[in-house]
Amino acid sequence: MRIARTFQTAPAAVPKENTAKYLDSALASEGFSAPDWLVPDLEDGTAPDMKAEGLENTIDRLDGGVEFSGEIWPRVQWAYDDAGLRDRGEEEVRTLFEAVGDELTGVVVPKVGRVADVERAIDVVERAEEAAGLPGGSMELSVIVETAAARSDLRDIAMLGNEDAHGGGRLAGLVFGPVDYTAELGGRAIDGDRPRWDGLLEALSNEASANDVVAIGGPFDKLFEERAGVTYYNAPAYADQVEREAAVGLDGSWSLYPKQTVQANRIHMPTPTELERDVSKIERFNDAKAEGTGAVTVDGQMVDEATFKNFANTVETVRTIHARHPDQTRDVYDEALVDRALDLDTDWQR
Amino acid sequence: MRIARTFQTAPAAVPKENTAKYLDSALASEGFSAPDWLVPDLEDGTAPDMKAEGLENTIDRLDGGVEFSGEIWPRVQWAYDDAGLRDRGEEEVRTLFEAVGDELTGVVVPKVGRVADVERAIDVVERAEEAAGLPGGSMELSVIVETAAARSDLRDIAMLGNEDAHGGGRLAGLVFGPVDYTAELGGRAIDGDRPRWDGLLEALSNEASANDVVAIGGPFDKLFEERAGVTYYNAPAYADQVEREAAVGLDGSWSLYPKQTVQANRIHMPTPTELERDVSKIERFNDAKAEGTGAVTVDGQMVDEATFKNFANTVETVRTIHARHPDQTRDVYDEALVDRALDLDTDWQR
Amino acid sequence: MRIARTFQTAPAAVPKENTAKYLDSALASEGFSAPDWLVPDLEDGTAPDMKAEGLENTIDRLDGGVEFSGEIWPRVQWAYDDAGLRDRGEEEVRTLFEAVGDELTGVVVPKVGRVADVERAIDVVERAEEAAGLPGGSMELSVIVETAAARSDLRDIAMLGNEDAHGGGRLAGLVFGPVDYTAELGGRAIDGDRPRWDGLLEALSNEASANDVVAIGGPFDKLFEERAGVTYYNAPAYADQVEREAAVGLDGSWSLYPKQTVQANRIHMPTPTELERDVSKIERFNDAKAEGTGAVTVDGQMVDEATFKNFANTVETVRTIHARHPDQTRDVYDEALVDRALDLDTDWQR
């Protein structure tokens, strides 16, 4: 099980005294503030005239290795309908792999079009990996699904995650980009909010699961609200979005801000109530199973292999996070509950 | 028009004095308690160590013929990612067809994967039918859509319902399996409820209709609720789910329990209000039609061939149920209303 | 940018003294009452025994040219499962193109099935265009998506809008037909309303955008409501539907009635608030851009190229409507705001 609760973009260069300010703070983040995936952003987050500096910053900060606990995935420039941008993107991938390839898990490619365009991006990664002398197949690719063409080809694009697909299965992640997507479709925020694109999210979750790649929701950009003269961080609205994404099985959420990272890291962990409920259901089910019946009723709910798997998912997620971030599980759950989760028999025996 | 209002699974063996208790009661059910499709369950409803007994029970109870008014569709073991389970499933199909094939409409195969896996299941049915000396093409197949792979291939899987498809169109039904499906996608019941997967249900209804196969919703397993110390049958929540399924055009709903069967049989019949409304609209429309206009307004709604077809659907459904279960239509509608429905001219004449 | 805010069907013949009454009033409509696309309806809106008269009326009214400000798109007879109807439809297309082809933008073909059926309709248009001696490729095709087969093949059907597709990209519009669609799927108006088919609308918007064709919502046929003895035009319910369609990026809405046309023309224009908001955001963003940062926060919302495109869409829509209907923009917006929208730099410079 791979952890990708948070996909935090950080502009690679900003017009401040320290142009790597956001990159520095993201790389120094700890605990719940540290994203599982950190994305130094050379695309829309960095101004046109600062792209070169963004690339330098990224290399400078990663060169020689970093302490950072998560995966590092720079986002490069790209667009399915702009060959010039794609050339710049390829150049960025080559430069990054050459200089700091060992520190990276892969690259994030935005604005991909139909499946052939994603295959083109895979070829770019493959050539850059070889040119940099990195181990064959070590560098992965995630794409932002934010064009009508990519949504139309989503099923075929997701299949590029399979080992026998073009490029040997480098595709590792599908990330939703709602702002560009809404603009492409001509959608409107009539009452102030963009449509939620529930159908797309359901399909993203399904196709990612069918091909064992990671699915991540889109950014929430109304970071702050104002009420009666006071501006505050918009915590509830972001949490609502992340909860909806978690419910339909997205693996993680996009973060634009450290507080969003804290929230998404937390929400993509089972709540203490969920963990207590599912640990307890498995415990009671395992007891009942000893008596030899297939369908057992626990709290008025029939438990069969399928229901059981849902409970076991909860426990497996906690175990994976615990192995990597024991401080986080300690923070959220009772020690005794963590121990019960670790000890539990989560095998359904046929 | 085929009736499949209810798809009731009954564990084929349970650890009680009479291990066929649920099978016996389902086979003896009458009136609204009798499902249109009865599914003796050899898969998740029967404990691993009771599979053989479940198979024996099913054969024993069906051998020599039964009075049961509906179709009988055993669910066998199967999984797209487990060859051992598929072998056991094939063995179960062969044994069932050999012993009681004449009593069966077909078999239900769970946990299918991509379209090639469903074709594999079709081949199993075809071989077993031949081995048992049953008429060629007489045994049908329904599958549970409960994996990301099956959802991804849903369009192609549904096309197996066409006569010119692999196996000659044996696929007769598509049934949703939300529990396994949610587990596969990593979905979460954050507020206690699984996501509804509205996109999947809409697609299931569409692809079933496009290929003339039956579409059936998933089980509702919170059979009972407790309030202030009293446990009660969760009638409203199940009815809500069945109504949503009926609205989007699913032909039937999954039942785990006789009271659910009563409710789903009722909800998948037009209500008296719907029948009165649509009979009356057709009557008034037919009168207006005599005056020779294409678009007629009845109650402020324009009625053309398309609207008319919706009204006629209501009437046709009632006629089909009436032909098979006159006791049920008598129970639900005024005798005079049934007579009007039977007498009505539901032909749209171009 | 093409305008298709309204798709108004007008029965081509009705049993009144002037059988072309609705056609005449639609052709004479002005201002917000005039649809962007006017659809003389030879299909469901015209009675079976008045089809010939409907065709005559259409030709008679268009012959010699009309003042009408929008595009004219007759709907002919057709059904994927009825060869006789298709023959009549082909005959209608030929007659129309021969007599008044110069006045038409194209034809609307209903009840199409899978992609092969739409290709068949394209061939009909191509042959009729040639027979009538019209410029090659001048006549377009829009189809009503109202069968399960067309929904199943929607992705491939939409691709017929591309220049390199069958027939050279004649497909120009995809229009939803919810009444026939609901009847085909066996959907039910249990609480009085048909399902909204949100998944289909999302897909329609996406596939239209991916192939640069126009997407239009379905008719709303509850034109009138009665309350306490008074019958009134159902303005709010229609507006709600049109707003939902606009939000998910449909280009226009179906109108059955002049007041619906007024409403849909208005709703598919940005509101004054939207225009003021987006013009102001671009103005402030352009100012901030001069300082050289990629991601700028305006009103607590991060603005990057993607967000910017959404604002620019609003402005472009207003400019397009203004070029064609300056009376409409004058009616809706302050003159000063229109001037700001026209003057604005909406180029995102990389």
UniProtKB/TrEMBL annotation, chains A, B, C:
<dbReference type="Pfam" id="PF03328">
    <property type="entry name" value="HpcH_HpaI"/>
</dbReference>
<dbReference type="GO" id="GO:0046872">
    <property type="term" value="F:metal ion binding"/>
</dbReference>
<keyword id="KW-0460">Magnesium</keyword>
<dbReference type="InterPro" id="IPR015813">
    <property type="entry name" value="Pyrv/PenolPyrv_kinase-like_dom"/>
</dbReference>
<dbReference type="GO" id="GO:0016829">
    <property type="term" value="F:lyase activity"/>
</dbReference>
<dbReference type="InterPro" id="IPR040442">
    <property type="entry name" value="Pyrv_kinase-like_dom_sf"/>
</dbReference>
<feature type="domain" description="HpcH/HpaI aldolase/citrate lyase">
    <location>
        <begin position="32"/>
        <end position="188"/>
    </location>
</feature>
<dbReference type="InterPro" id="IPR005000">
    <property type="entry name" value="Aldolase/citrate-lyase_domain"/>
</dbReference>
<keyword id="KW-0479">Metal-binding</keyword>
<protein>
    <submittedName>
        <fullName>L-malyl-CoA/beta-methylmalyl-CoA lyase</fullName>
        <ecNumber>4.1.3.24</ecNumber>
    </submittedName>
</protein>
<keyword id="KW-0456">Lyase</keyword>
